[in-house]
Amino acid sequence: MTSPLQQASNGDAGQDKYVGTFDVLIIGAGVTGLYALYRLREMGFSVQSFEDGSGVGGTWYWNRYPGARFDSESYTYGYSFSEELLQEWDWKELYSGQPENERYLNYVADKFNLRPLIQMNSRIASATYDEHELSWQIETVDGRRARGRFLITAVGLLSAHYVPDFEGLDSYQGRWCHTGRWPKEGMDLAGKRVGVIGTGATAVQLITEIAREVGHLTVFQRTANYCAPLRNREIDDDMQAEIKASYPEIFQKCLETPGSFMHKFDTRSALEVSSEERLEQYERLWQEPGFKKWLSNFYDVMMPGDVNEDYAEFVRNKIRERVHDPVVAEMLVPKDHMFGSKRLPCESGYYEVYNQDNVLLVDVRSAPIKRITPTGLMLENGNEYELDVIIFATGYDAVTGSLNRIDIRGEGGKLLKDKFANGPRTYMGIQSAGFPNLFTVNAASVGNFVRAAEPLVDWVSECIRYVHDNEYATIAPTLEAEDEWVRHVNEDGANLLRSKANSWFVGANIPGKARALLTSPDTAPVMRAKRAEVASNGYQGFELR
Ligand code: NAP
Q1: 201 lines ligand 1 (CB under 6 A)
Q2: Ligand 1 pocket test target in 77, 178, 509 with most atoms within 8 Å of CB
Q3: Is 393 in the pocket of ligand 1 (CB under 6 A)?
Q4: Is the Cβ–Cβ distance between 59 and 30 less than 8 Å?
Q5: Could you give the 3-state DSSP secondary structure of residue 508?
Q6: Does the CB atom of residue 61 touch ligand 1 within 6 A?
């Protein structure tokens, strides 16, 4: 395909640090960015990706903390676009760990020769829309620049890691890190006094793993979580063969479910069956691996109300059974939010860690962390903890955080960050009025990640082809379509279980961040149908110039 921008002479070309002019620029070479690179290159576009890390993989590049692994079944997570890839790759475990996941994404990058299209170690500082050239100019923190007619932010949903602004961190003489920036060379924790701040899905994986080697572990918990057994195991040869023979059915199943997982809700209400039958189902699913416990359960387990509370109590009792000290057990039992209102952390021996003599659970809800000291940390009640290492498992400034860390300016020099100050203002998460040809794919994808990302990238790629083939210069949503979408997210999203807790889903984990649902309130099948309808109606709701 001839690229109009490549043909155009450009004043930037030839200057130092000028990378080039492309049809499409992609920020990020994680799961979404890699597939977008592949797809758009196959369509004949010139594409270039800029990746902050020194390698590909995004989430699976950065999150190399001990214990990091999938919570979706490995064989539902891989790309589906290449039958050859599906048949070549052997997932070793039901829920594969970070090293294997990173290896997989490297394998994909090599197999499809994507590396030449990626500039590694390239953190993007700014992205500016040029209203004369009708293109985007991006600049890395070290001053390299590139131009592209289209810009895709494949910067991740959970990639802007959040370290609370604790006083005194500069004075700390031990070693500290955030789980999302775990050093490549690893951390020597053997025999050390280690503190972990946070008890979310990340901390639950990490704590279980490091409790085996540390000298002493102190866990600072603000909110207890509902956690469920992962029940991971190796995939044997028979299962491997079965998986490889049934990928079409596996992916079809994922396509049909709300979050693109292969688990379907029971269409019965828990209230339709006897209490014995209800408990039998709870117990049976509890023995199953992964997310089945909540995503294959009675449909009303995942709706606010009495059934949700009934199941929450079932899970609380499971926690109580596993922790020897009843005081510690009660600290670990969540009581302030509904089951399923936060993403369910899956664990492999998490609660038993608190039965170890060298592990201490500290409640930082009643006495918050006041400051980091040179030798550890201090709570507001004056209690001090001496620590050789502090690990922040304190989460992410989700969805908008990774966009806001880039100075993104659209028409009239308007900052995307300002526009998103009260929550994302987009149409279907994909585009924002006043920011033509910018595709914020990281704000449009949720659920079983690759299953959601692939159809989204397909839609965006087809949209770019449509704009190009029909000789339009730009595409951006109309303000009316955007307003209606924002209304839908805020009003219809307010009824969802995941809007009810103070979590990253609604930006409530970041002090000062406006509370707003950061993802679509629609299920994956509804979202795909909406996008398909918009496209088949000539990109209804978008303005093509
Ligand atoms: P998170 O769920 O936001 O948890 C952050 C933790 O840090 C919470 O316990 C939070 O307490 C605590 N925290 C934050 N600021 C604090 C402060 N100032 N003082 C004390 N505690 C503080 O983050 P995450 O665990 O990294 O997980 C984020 C998401 O990543 C998950 O929901 C999931 O979607 C994804 N994830 C997936 C997997 C997987 O298996 N594939 C693994 C890990 C993560 P509060 O709850 O009180 O705010």
Answers
A1: yes
A2: 509
A3: yes
A4: yes
A5: coil
A6: no
Cα-to-centroid distance, 538 and ligand 1 (Å) = 41
Is 74 a pocket residue for ligand 1 (Cβ < 6 Å)? no
**For residue 368, which atom of ligand 1 is closest to its CA?**
19
Task: Decide: 70 in ligand 1 pocket, CB within 6 A.
Answer: yes
Query: Could you tell me the domains of the chain?
Result: 18-56+114-160+398-544 (3.50.50.60), 228-392 (no CATH)
Q: Give the pLDDT confidence score for residue 445 in this predicted structure.
A: 72
Atom of ligand 1 nearest to the CA of 203: 25
Question: pTM score, two decimals?
Answer: 0.96
| Structural tokens at position 289 | 């691996």
Mean pLDDT across the chain: 96
- Using the predicted structure, report yes or no on whether residue 6 has a pLDDT greater than 90: no
CB 409 within 8 A of CB 127: yes
Query: Which of 283-293 are b and which e, b meaning 16 or more Cβ less than 10 Å from the residue's Cβ?
Result: eebbeebbbbb
pLDDT 10s digits, 136-185: 999 999 999 999 999 999 999 999 999 999 999 999 999 999 999 999 99
For 215, the token pair is: 């000298």
Give the pLDDT confidence of 265-305 residue by residue, as tens digits.
999 999 999 999 999 999 999 999 999 998 999 999 999 99
Helices 306-322 and 275-286: crossing angle in degrees, nearest 10, is: 50
151 lines ligand 1 (CB under 6 A): no
Report the distance separating Cα 471 and Cα 149, nearest Å.
13
* Distance in Å, CA 390 to ligand 1 centroid: 16
Q: What is the pLDDT of residue 447?
A: 86
In degrees, rounded to 5, the angle at the alpha carbon of residue 158 between the alpha carbons of residues 406 and 426 is 60
The closest residue, in CA terms, to atom 35 on ligand 1 is: 201
| pLDDT (tens digit per residue) in 85-118 | 999 999 999 999 999 999 999 999 999 999 999 9
CA 523/CA 504 separation, integer angstroms: 18
Contact 371 CB / ligand 1 (< 6 Å) = no
Whose Cα sits closest to atom 23 in ligand 1? 395
CB-CB contact of 332 with 351 (8 Å): yes
Report, as an integer, the average pLDDT of 343-350. Answer: 96
Burial of 191 (0-12, 13-18, 19+ CB in 10 A): exposed
Measured in degrees and rounded to the nearest 5, phi and psi for residue 199 equal -140, 40
- Ligand 1 neighbour 202 (Cβ under 6 A): yes
